Amino acid sequence: MINIDILVGSTLGGTEYVAEATQPFLEEAGFSTQVHFSPDLTILNIEEESIWLVCLATHGAGDYPDNFKQIVEQINNISDDLSNIHFGLIGVGDSNYDTYCYAAKHFDLLLREKGALRLGNIFNIDVVESPIPEDQIEDWIPLWIKDLNSLAI
């Protein structure tokens, strides 16, 4: 069974609910999942083919949440390429700010610069339009699962 590591960057906890809402869909599709509320590159195996689903809120003026800063720093500091990583990305933000989902956009660029391959499009959830962001998962996750099923891992 293929495992998906779900990496969570959350400030107020709403993005944690988004991450947890993805699990039943992924498990029903035959994947195992592990949620990382304090993602740490030393725990994740980047030497082997891996799949990450990143659920990332934008905090403040386009910043990463505190619980996500460690993995960003770790990735910035490694010389290894991340070509073994396939990832999906869910951004959570407030469109009233010009830095809407900036953390997700920035993390996407960082991972791709390190050689990771994004599966599908970034799924941005606007908390202005969707005050309960986890309710939006059921529209996007089946599309991402199709992308996962096309992998030959």
What structural keywords apply?
153 residues, alpha/beta, 4 helices, 23% strand
Molecular structure report:
With 153 residues, the chain is an alpha/beta fold. The protein has helices spanning 14-28, 69-77, 102-113, 137-149, and strands spanning 3-9, 32-36, 50-57, 85-93, 117-118, 123-126. Strands 1, 2, 3, 4, 5 and 6 form a 6-stranded parallel sheet that branches. Helix 1 links the parallel strand 1 and strand 2 (32-36). Helix 1 crosses helix 4 (137-149). The model has no long low-confidence stretch (mean pLDDT 94).
Task: Please report which band the strand proportion falls in: under 5%, 5-15%, 15-25%, 25-35%, 35-45% or over 45%.
Answer: 15-25%
Number of E-state strands? 6
Taking Cα atoms only, what radius of gyration do you get, to the nearest Å?
14 Å
Major beta-sheet overview: 6 strands, parallel
Average pLDDT value?
Answer: 94
Structure class: alpha/beta
The H-and-E topology, N to C, reads as EHEEHEHEEH
The portion of residues assigned to helices is: 25-40%
Q: Indicate the low-confidence ranges by residue numbers.
A: none
Number of separate helices: 4
Cα(first) to Cα(last) distance is 10 Å
Gross morphology is globular
Q: How is the secondary structure organized here?
A:
Blueprint: E1 3-9, H1 14-28, E2 32-36, E3 50-57, H2 69-77, E4 85-93, H3 102-113, E5 117-118, E6 123-126, H4 137-149
Parallel strand pairs: 1-2, 1-3, 3-4, 4-5, 4-6
Overview in brief:
This protein is α/β, with parallel strands linked by helices.
